[in-house]
Amino acid sequence: MAKKNLKRKQKTQTEVVKEDESKVILPLVRRSDEPVIKKAKWINRERVLVFGTRGISFQHRHLMKDIIKLLPHAKSANKMERKENLFVVNEMCKMSHCNKCILFDGRLQRDLYMWFSNSPDGPSIKFNVESIFTSAELKLTGNCLKGSRPLLSFDNSFDEHPQYSLLREMFVQIFGVPDHHPKSQPFVDNVLNFSVLDNRIWFRNYQILDENGAIAEIGPRFVLQPIRIFKGSFCGETLWENPFYVTPAKTRRLLKDNKKDKYTNNKIQRKAKKTKELLAPFRVKPENEIFRDGNVKEKAKHVIAKNKKAF
Questions:
Q1: DSSP-based helix, strand, coil % in the chain, nearest 5
Q2: Helices (H), the chain
Q3: Same domain, yes or no, for 160 and 263?
Q4: Is the pLDDT assigned to residue 186 strictly greater than 90?
Q5: What is the pLDDT of residue 282?
Q6: pLDDT band for position 264 (cuts 50, 70, 90)
Q7: Which segments constitute the Brix domain (predicted)?
Q8: d(C-alpha 192, C-alpha 207), whole Å
Q9: What's the CA gap between 175 and 71, in Å, rounded?
Q10: DSSP of 95-121
Q11: For residue 194, is it within any domain?
Q12: Domain match, 90 and 165 both
């Protein structure tokens, strides 16, 4: 059998030059101040730092974890000491490369205050959180994909007052997941609803079941009562203050006072009832009043008419 020709064809000089031009030789050393090339799709660089102070209860901690799950662009941090000044939060945001912040500030293991801040320039908003129900407590049937981009739904009341317009813009920047975020999913299957009622903002999370618009609540749910809006981040001039805000300690004291008044009223009524029962045998019958001074016939007619009305 004839041997196969195993000699390869030698490449011409022009082909070798073309191959060398197509190859890109990377530098062995890169300068430290040289910016790293990143994808151009991810333009919105919003990052939210979510953490709490020492002293929050287990329910407040579970609510914080639920909000971190809702926001794929959120970062967590260690608990902050309550003795430290709130200006430290701006430094923490800078170290974590975050420009938004949600701070959970717990008091007396029962009251929860929530801060929304745009670090480091401001503004910042302080809320009192009421009617907290975490996702684990509700045990609802709804479910959504983790990391999906939510639709934000706002009530018409956000357009009527300037303070609510500012709150809406803050909620859009914090709860709106950036497009093409690395940790987000390219699906839209839940709705975050913000509605104003009784000078409070009611938060609800719903799952989109089908294309017809059917929804089911997922959780968590809570109510935000705005207290103050500051010009800076955790500082500065007060832009707006809620005139209808009453502190939780004052509301508890008022409820206690109402219970105390109720007890005193019950005590007075019982005493009056006892005195009435004691004086009942000594009361004069209306028939005996006929024989007193005056016209007897007219008094008798008056007594008879009174008895007829009673029957």
A1: 35, 25, 40
A2: 13-22, 58-70, 88-95, 135-138, 162-175, 248-279, 296-310
A3: no
A4: no
A5: 62
A6: confident
A7: 46-235
A8: 9
A9: 7
A10: HTT-SEEEEEEEETTTEEEEEEEETTT
A11: yes
A12: yes
Dist. CA 160–CA 302, nearest whole Å: 66
Boundaries of domain holding 305: 253-309
For residues 107 and 186, membership in a common domain is answered with: yes
Q: How confident is the model at residue 278 (pLDDT cuts 50, 70, 90)?
A: confident
**SS3 for 73?**
coil
In a domain, 136, yes or no: yes
Residue 134 lies in a domain: yes
Cα separation of 273 and 256, whole Å? 26
259 and 227 assigned to the same domain: no
Query: 271 and 191: one domain?
Result: no
Q: For the domain that residue 137 is a member of, what is the CATH number?
A: 3.40.50.10480
Check if the beta carbon of residue 194 is closer than 8 Å to that of residue 153. Answer: yes
15 touches 21 (CB < 8 A) = no
- Between 258 and 188, the higher pLDDT residue: 188
For 7-55, write each residue's pLDDT tens digit.
555 556 566 556 666 666 666 676 767 776 665 677 888 899 999 998 8
- Reported residue count of the chain is 311
DSSP result, 272-298? HHHHHHHHGGGSPPGGGGGGSSS-HHH
Q: Do 282 and 234 sit in the same domain of this protein?
A: no
- Whether residue 217 is found in the same domain as residue 77: yes
111 inside domain:
yes
Average the pLDDT over 71-81 and give the result.
Answer: 91
Would strands 221-230 and 151-154 be described as parallel, antiparallel, or unpaired?
Answer: unpaired
Q: Which two tokens stand for residue 217?
A: 């609540």
Average pLDDT over residues 126-139: 91
| Cβ neighbours, 10 Å, residue 126 | 20
